């Protein structure tokens, strides 16, 4: 078991990474919290892990309820938030409760948002079960739900009390879900760490075969990179924006399909990375050799490099214009300048923006 710690001015919390942690979940910070809990999960994760988590909580004197939601990005909505809060109120839960998010990024975002607004904020614990959530979504305190006009437009910053990452959960992911998470892994390497990118080139097949030692290193490396960024810029005023490489384009794809699961988040991010690289390449910043290396790695990870066939150039633009990373006087994008380094660029040319999208259309 490996342990990291994210330290902020007003709070801090541990991140535990290992295999089989759910079997010993009471060892990782839960017993330090009030033993009144609500577990929020979905109908895919519940049959796999809910009984195990419930039994460990029961053995340690917890009183708890369970909320089992349908699977899918469409659950990240204000209507579902209201349903969950209504349950909490009907059961007379007070501010001394803890919400446990058991699932992937959707469950973590939704449960975290509920925790942030219920009675002005209650404790919550992240137990991420997907690669995407383990390397990215569960860490850093971003919580949100979607709006029909844009992804993650309604949210808050609310840090968890702890993050418990059981690598064994990755063995129950579909290959498509696992590869979706690899898009975020590749994002970290392209944005911050050339050495990590080289490691991914050499060990991608080991990750795809679920080699536990490689998975442990990969998750630990990504979590370490995110911790460094969040500690310096918790609320995304500057440095943390770099974590959104590819996401402006990706959110346009997800919003266009109304979050119905046509495209997984990581699949959309993969295309978004391609479009961001294209923009940077057209500026003369990102070299062709770096472009080709990233493109090859995305393909090896079974990730798409072209946008949805149904989306036209014009379909991307309204969502990009509303992107939450935009500033008062115009749009901005996260662009790679070389493998291991990216910048926030706000001198956006409409022609280059359209060209970067057009370059990745089928």
Largest sheet: 7 strands, mixed
In N-to-C order, the SSE pattern is EEEHEHEHEHEEEHHHHHHHEEH
Radius of gyration: 20 Å
In what order do the strands lie side by side in the largest sheet?
1-2-9-6-5-3-4
Helix content: 40-55%
Mean pLDDT: 95
How many helices? The count is 12
The low-pLDDT segments are none
Walk me through the structure:
Helix content is 44%, strand content 19%. It contains twelve helices and eleven strands. The chain has helices at 46-59, 78-90, 105-117, 131-137, 175-192, 194-208, 212-232, 247-256, 265-283, 288-300, 313-321, 350-358, and strands at residues 2-7, 12-18, 36-42, 63-69, 98-103, 123-128, 142-147, 150-157, 162-166, 333-338, 341-345. It starts with a strand and ends with a helix.
Care to give the gist of this entry?
With about 350 residues, this protein is α/β, with parallel strands linked by helices. It has twelve helices and eleven strands. It has a seven-stranded mixed β-sheet with strand order 1-2-9-6-5-3-4, sandwiched between helices. Strands 7-8 form a two-stranded antiparallel sheet.
């Amino acid at each position: 078991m490996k342990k990291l710690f994210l330290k902020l001015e007003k709070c801090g919390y541990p991140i535990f990474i290992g295999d089989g942690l759910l079997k010993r979940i009471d060892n990782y910070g839960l017993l330090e919290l009030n033993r009144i809990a609500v577990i929020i999960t979905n109908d895919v994760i519940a049959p796999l892990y809910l009984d195990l988590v419930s039994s460990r909580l029961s053995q340690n004197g917890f009183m708890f309820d369970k909320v089992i939601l349908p699977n899918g990005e469409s659950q990240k909505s204000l209507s579902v938030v209201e349903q969950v809060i209504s349950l909490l109120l009907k059961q007379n839960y007070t501010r001394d409760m803890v919400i446990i998010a058991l699932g992937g990024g959707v469950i973590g975002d939704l449960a975290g948002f509920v925790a942030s607004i219920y009675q002005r904020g209650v404790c919550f614990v992240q137990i991420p079960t997907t690669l995407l959530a383990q390397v990215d979504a569960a860490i850093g305190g971003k919580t949100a739900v979607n709006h029909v006009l844009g992804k993650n437009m309604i949210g808050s910053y609310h840090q968890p009390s702890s993050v418990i990452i059981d690598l064994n959960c990755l063995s129950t992911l579909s290959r498509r879900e696992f590869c979706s998470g690899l898009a975020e892994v590749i994002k970290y390497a392209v944005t911050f760490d050339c050495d990590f990118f080289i490691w991914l080139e050499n060990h991608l097949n080991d990750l795809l075969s679920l080699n536990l030692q490689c998975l442990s290193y990969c998750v630990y490396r990504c979590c370490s990179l995110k911790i460094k960024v969040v500690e310096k810029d918790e609320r995304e005023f500057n440095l943390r924006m770099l974590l959104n490489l590819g996401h402006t384009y990706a959110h346009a794809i997800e919003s266009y399909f109304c979050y119905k699961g046509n495209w997984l988040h990581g699949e959309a991010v993969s295309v978004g990375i391609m479009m961001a690289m294209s923009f940077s390449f057209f500026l003369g910043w990102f070299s062709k050799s770096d472009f080709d290396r990233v493109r090859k790695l995305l393909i090896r990870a079974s990730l798409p490099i072209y946008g949805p066939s149904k989306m036209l150039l014009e379909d991307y633009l309204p969502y990009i214009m509303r992107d939450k990373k935009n500033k008062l006087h115009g749009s901005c994008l996260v662009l790679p300048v070389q493998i291991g380094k990216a910048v926030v660029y706000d001198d956006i040319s409409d022609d280059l923006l359209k060209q970067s999208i057009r370059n990745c259309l089928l």
